[in-house]
Specification:
single chain; 7-stranded mixed beta sheet; 14 helices; Glutaredoxin; 530 residues; disordered N terminus; elongated; disordered C terminus
Length: 530
């Protein structure tokens, strides 16, 4: 089947970069076609020419054909076939995904028959593998779905070739259900199968740092969409979001990917619907896993990695310190309850959490904290989730402190503990929305001390009226202060000076009266002259 312009719009995008810098090129090609640049995708989306293929082999257990490029060793073909048969068993037979769609239409195929075609041929530098979705299989089958074929570079390291094939096979199954689902959901669930196929190959963890650094990013977003709000040029959020897929499977699923298959089936687009509706968030809601419940629970679960890992909660996979959750540290001595409003760039964004972190001082037996959060937008719903753990102790306490437009909650943490307070926006959102800040107001108050510590609270002088003229003169000095201090000393001297002046006036008055008596005109003594 030739690759039509419509088919170019269905090329799946990049898988994780391999250790050697080689990538799987699936969804970036699809994005290029959707954005009107099909030429960027066309070279990779064509099937190899007949003269480029030396041989092929068919699986005995699954409808899969592996084509070997000229010069490709047969052992590579056997390795690829083994990985593809294992992927079929895990993803179709156990998890329950629908089988790939046949590319045989009216008896015409480009791959020889209706089997899934996988080509081991050299790919451009930096590209490890890709999956190409063809035209919509039928206009009346009730879903926007298509058959697909795969390409993989045979020069990949053996373990990377294996996990890439599991990843790309998931894209094939996705296209057999829904070719319009979001980039984040497509890639996160494809990387999930890398983890399940080869837990010992940790190359997928390279993208975790980007994802974990941005808990305030929408759970449904991808790196390109969130790049304007990130310090990284191209954060690989959609690949690091495998942590969310693992959370769904390990906390709410059966550990075998069945829930992920159910969510994919629930997001199928009818033929007549051009947009991504329903999306995976809609499917989760139908299955009883509303995003508003998942997000505040996930934020604490994803924090339990590295030194905060515990045995009975958090990811089952061993994740290093590079996957620590991004949280802004706040000193316990600054928890004065001052109300703050988050900014347009700091988040939280839709269906995400802003995280504040406090280390309890060692000289404090128990740190009590009052958390207050309030919405700033109409119809905004918030959630506050808390995590208290002592690093290295192997224990952690997670709690949902409350939900609503206004939340007040109290927590207590022991000496040496690490406290994380997640302030989340859980208002309903669409999986294809662009990131948009959802500002909130919040405060953290340490209730075991009086605030402020610098002395009594300053009396509010009121609002200054600039048109009311100069301020009135100060009140007269009070002379009834007790002694002590420079101010009181000056007031005491003032009083002494005032008393001395009064005494002098009395003395002078007495002298004047005596002089008047000495020199007054007296009839009784005419010999006295004036």
């Amino acid at each position: 089947m030739p690759v039509t312009p419509a088919a170019l719009a269905l090329v799946a995008t990049l898988a994780l970069p391999a250790a050697g810098g080689r990538e799987c090129a699936t969804m970036a090609m699809r994005e290029a076609a959707w954005r009107g640049f099909p030429a960027m995708a066309s070279a990779l989306t064509e099937r190899p020419w007949a003269e480029e293929i030396a041989s092929f082999s068919d699986s005995a257990s699954a409808p899969v054909r592996v084509h070997l490029g000229v010069g490709v060793d047969a052992a590579r073909g056997a390795l690829a076939m083994s990985a593809l048969e294992a992927a079929w068993a895990m993803q179709v037979s156990v998890a329950g995904f629908d089988v790939p769609l046949s590319d045989a239409v009216d008896g015409v195929t480009d791959g020889g028959d209706g089997r899934l075609d996988v080509y081991l041929v050299p790919l451009p530098p930096g590209t490890g593998a890709l999956t190409v979705a063809l035209a919509d299989a039928a206009d009346d089958d009730g879903k926007r779905a298509s058959p697909a074929f795969m390409k993989a570079d045979p020069t990949l390291a053996a373990e990377l070739l294996e996990v890439y094939l599991h990843h790309e096979f998931q894209h094939v199954l996705q296209f057999a259900l829904d070719t319009r689902e979001s980039l984040m959901w497509s890639e996160s669930t494809a990387v999930y199968w890398e983890v399940r196929a080869r837990p010992d190959v940790d190359e997928w963890q390279q993208a975790l740092a980007d994802f974990q650094r941005h808990p305030q990013a929408p759970i449904f977003t991808d790196g390109a969409a969130f790049a304007p709000f990130s310090e990284a040029d191209s954060p690989r959020l959609e690949y690091g979001a495998v942590l969310f897929a693992l959370y769904l499977d390990e906390v709410h699923g059966d550990g075998a990917g069945t829930l992920l298959a159910d969510l994919w089936r629930g997001s199928v687009q009818p033929d007549a619907v051009p947009d991504d509706e329903p999306d995976w968030l809609d499917a989760a809601d139908v299955l009883g896993f509303a995003a508003g419940t998942l997000v505040p629970d996930f934020v604490g679960w994803r924090a339990l990695v590295g030194p905060l890992a515990v045995t009975d909660d958090g990811p089952a996979e061993a994740l290093g310190g590079g996957a620590l959750l991004g949280a802004e540290s706040v000193a316990a001595s600054t928890l004065d309850g001052q109300l703050q409003t988050t900014g347009e760039d700091s988040g939280p964004f839709q269906l995400s959490c802003l995280v504040r972190q406090v280390e309890v001082p060692g000289n404090v037996d128990v740190l009590p904290v009052h958390v207050h959060a309030e919405a700033t937008l109409a119809d905004q719903t918030l959630a506050v989730a808390t995590l208290i753990t002592v690093p290295g102790s192997g224990t952690a306490t997670r709690a949902l402190a409350g939900t609503g437009a206004t939340i007040d909650a109290d927590l207590q943490a022991p000496s040496g503990a690490l406290v994380q307070v997640a302030l989340c926006d859980i208002t309903a959102a669409d999986a294809d929305e662009a990131p948009a800040a959802r500002p909130i107001r919040f405060s953290l108050l340490r209730t075991d001390v009086e605030w402020p510590d610098a002395g009594p609270a300053v009396e509010d002088a009121g609002v200054i009226d600039v048109d009311a003229g100069p301020p009135p003169p100060p009140d007269p000095i009070c002379t009834c202060q007790s002694s002590g201090g420079a101010t009181n000393l000056r007031k005491g001297l003032y009083v002494l000076g005032l008393l001395a002046s009064v005494v002098m006036l009395v003395v002078r008055g007495g002298r004047a009266r005596r002089r008047r008596r000495l020199y007054q005109d007296g009839d009784a003594d005419p010999g006295i002259r004036r």
